[in-house]
Specification:
single chain; alpha/beta; Aspartate Aminotransferase, domain 1; Aspartate Aminotransferase, domain 2; 7-stranded mixed β-sheet; 4-stranded antiparallel β-sheet
């Protein structure tokens, strides 16, 4: 199988991730639940991952909270700073992990709508909408559907200037683009462990500039005599037993990113993106969504074939893609693809130019040249 669905999950991992997960399952118990060797090994594994994440994302160790995934992290962030009914500005490219929590608390959501791949117009739209009385801004760094890199640095500067807290969804950028808690001035930055950080599913990180409010209450291994959750980070946000083996694997994934560097990974994905764009642009019956400011994610649709059917055709030839609305209907509304959806291919550090050439051969069999 040629795996072109890394925007959902990076299936291929560094071998160290698999080894570390298995080792942790055999040697680690629970953090803060004893002073015996197995508990201390768990504490060391989790703390080590916090250190690595802080190094990669320019954050202090206590500002790194572990979550189940980016959705969990975004729920904590949103419900920490957005009051019920509060006014929130978002981009027009948000994932349901943002839109559904905002809907659940009855937030007054205002979209800073803009065309695909136009950073200038996106920034202008945020400048218009970030008005007094706005409780927060929530913005994805990169569209999971189209790979559009939003001007997050400019949006962060606007929010800082106007005193509006910013939540960044770095689900598609962590590990490939610069992400800094300190430099962005964001209140929160949320990300999964299982995408660009090459960790296991069931892991996530929430970077917290000034703490947050618990989404869950329970045991933390600290302040056990009190009914209230601890008032210090990261314990305040980490109720219950940690996914120690997953977090240990996430540390190995972050180590890989630090060694390879996000810049080199991004450059590799860009090379593959340009190859794939060249392949798909040769078919006149295809609509390709490509432009400047694009990461290693590419969407397209055929004029004469349903997207789900097209995705199944690729699967039949051993190409893993993602078809449909990608849990991001707002992004499709912004691009005019809500009724049809798109087929998406997305790359990781483990994809190769030879795989793109094989993809080109499959395209010749699937599409009819006009």
């Amino acid at each position: 199988m040629i795996y072109f669905d890394s925007a959902a999950t990076t299936l291929q991992k560094p071998q160290s991730v698999f080894a570390v997960v298995q080792h942790a399952m055999r040697t680690c118990s629970s953090v803060g639940r004893g002073g015996h060797p197995a508990a201390m090994a768990a504490a060391d594994a989790v703390y080590s991952c916090r250190e690595r994440a802080g190094q990669l994302f320019d954050a202090d160790v206590e500002q790194v909270a572990f979550t189940l995934n980016a959705t969990h992290a975004l729920n904590i962030a949103i419900k920490s700073i957005v009051p019920p009914g509060g006014r929130v500005v978002t981009s027009g490219f948000e994932h349901n992990a943002v839109t559904r929590p905002l809907h659940a608390i009855g937030a007054q959501v205002v979209k800073a709508t803009s065309p695909l791949f136009s950073q200038e117009k996106t920034l202008a739209a945020f400048e218009r909408q970030l008005t007094p009385g706005t409780a927060a801004a929530v913005c994805t760094h990169v569209s999971n559907v189209f790979g559009y890199i939003l001007p997050i640095e400019g949006i962060a500067r606007l929010c800082k200037k106007r005193g509006i807290p910013l939540i960044i969804d770095a689900s598609q950028s962590a590990g490939t683009l610069p992400v800094s808690l300190r430099e962005s001035g964001a209140a929160f930055i949320a990300m999964p462990g299982h995408k660009g950080l090459y960790g296991p599913q069931g892991t996530g990180i929430l970077l917290c500039a000034n703490g947050g409010e618990p989404l869950l209450e329970g045991g933390t291994g600290s302040n056990s005599a009190f009914l209230e959750m601890p008032d210090f980070m990261p314990d305040r946000l980490e109720a219950g037993t940690h996914n120690v083996s997953g977090i240990a694997g996430l540390r190995a994934g972050i180590d890989y990113v630090l060694f390879r560097t996000p810049q080199r990974i991004f450059a590799h994905e860009q090379h593959l993106l340009q190859q794939a764009r060249q392949v798909l642009s040769g078919y006149r019956n295809l609509q390709l969504y490509a432009g400047d400011s694009q990461s290693g994610v590419l969407s397209f649709r055929a004029q004469d074939m349903d997207c789900e059917t097209l995705g199944q055709e690729f699967a039949r030839f051993g190409i893993a893609t993602r078809a449909g609305l990608h849990c991001a209907p707002q992004a499709h509304e912004s691009a005019g693809t809500f009724e049809s959806g798109t087929v998406r291919i997305s790359f990781s550090a483990f994809n190769t130019a030879n795989e793109v050439r094989q993809f080109a051969g499959v395209c010749r069999r699937v599409f009819r040249r006009q």
